[in-house]
Design brief:
With 605 residues, the chain is an alpha+beta fold. The protein has 19 helices and 19 strands.
Length: 605
Amino acid sequence: MTTEDYKKIAGTLPKQPGVYRFIDPESTIIYVGKAKNLKNRLASYFGDKKHQSRKTRIMVRNAARFEFTIVETEADALLLESTLIKKFQPRYNVMLKDGKSYSYICIKKERFPRVFLTRRVIKDGSTYFGPYVSRWRTGIILDLIKNLFPLRTCNYNLSQGNIEKGKFKVCLEYHIKNCLGPCVGLEDEESYNEKITQIKNILKGHFGAVKQHFKNEMEKLAANLEFERAQELKEKLKAFEDYQGKSTVVSTTIRDVDVFSIATDEKTAYVNYLKVVNGAVINTYTQEMIKNLDTNEKDLLEFVIPEIRNRFQSITKEIVLAQKLNLPEDDLQITIPKIGDKKKLLELSQKNVKYYLLQKQKEEATKASKQTSVERILKTLQSDLQMDDLPVHIECFDNSNIQGSNPVASCVVFKNAKPAKRDYRHFKIKTVEGPDDFASMTEVVYRRYRRLLDEGESLPQLIIIDGGKGQLSASVKSLEELGVLDKVTVIGIAKRLEEIFFPGDSIPIYINKKSESLKLIQQARNEAHRFAITFHRNQRSKDFTSTELTQIPGIGDKTADKLLSHFKSVKKLKEAQMPEIQLVVGKSAALKVKKYFEGNDVEKE
């Protein structure tokens, strides 16, 4: 994927957190990455290549396109990235092992429930909160909860019978006030369960009262000059405020579901699909469809859902949607969630499909705007020059020489008011001796259009000659000889007053200096001048170097060209060893070159 490809869509990228995927021409995902700001992160791949690793540059070069999925938070982006890397194992990603992954807080299903951090989710009726990206931060939250609500940490079976029989004794946790002793009947089940209820509220994100409690405690400690303890509470409060209770992209309450949402405009419909396996989003996809006149969203969904499920080989029997549908599979369960994790997944899908629609609309608007702008400029130019045809194809010529040395010329090509650099051509003047711009222009214009006619290529609608009446007349001579003068419009532009000359008319016209059409003519003229100057400079440099080498007895033009092509400069040739020179031009010529340079060095000494 090139920088030019990226620039065409850069304006439509979101500044939201998400996950992006680079995809090769065979539609294989070759890299998955996360971003706090998708637009900024993707821009970094197409900016200054010097600061990129070689592996990154190769990855971008091998990609045909990229896709992205918007999520709610940076933490969600990290979780989705991890899931997709494990699923697709992209070749340019560091592979993630399936061992340790996410952290959860478990409230165990038992009398006097324990609350602890775990990486394993066991379907035994226990309540799990998470997953959490940062185990360190989650540990702080867990410690905070235990400081607020002392809980047991032992794994004893605290049945009513065991407690009444006195099977247990209080441990150190009781003596340091981390537990209130439910194992010996010092805390009843009702008060303990009330604490569990409050903990669940906190883990769900309902902790306004808890925050206020901490602030009050901090004020009391500060008033008592206990600043260290106040600072500890402040740090815990900050961790509490940074804490995220739920993730959108991974859930312990959902197993396997397919999530679909739709967004439409007048002509097109887009259906977003989230594939959820074991509670994790493992794939995202957006299908684009052309609408018929009488097609509504319900009909579109009923048509495309079986197609998408078949493409992604989905076997789940539950589909999450925003509306009821009649689908061909009889045993499918359609869920229209109002609250909870499935509702969050549906909202995530809806957010992505709406943004996809917005992106497509922006792309179309930008494309239409550019097309309208180009069409307007070309129509203005057509009107200003009184042309019969729209000047979609423009060619401009310029000469370059210094006191007749190395005379060259350039031809630049503009298509749809933009430079078509692949079609640029430069010419060495072959038939003209000395600094004769008129004769040089005659030769170059003839050679250019003789070749186009021989190869059956189309002629430009407009030919621009950089120069006044003399250069224009020279060009017209060639066009008449080729019999194409009546098929094209040819003009000359004089630099001093930006005068526009037409063949056979000694009086120029003047186009408004603010006109877009004059700016286009000037752009073509300046580009032709730049291209000619660059080529002329290269020729002078090459000829100067070649002249020095051809002064060596026994070294001709072809041998000099071989040496320059291989060594790039005379300096590097001087520094080269005999075996290397011999490989390029043979032993005899290599000896002559080496002897010449060694002799010159001796003379200088």
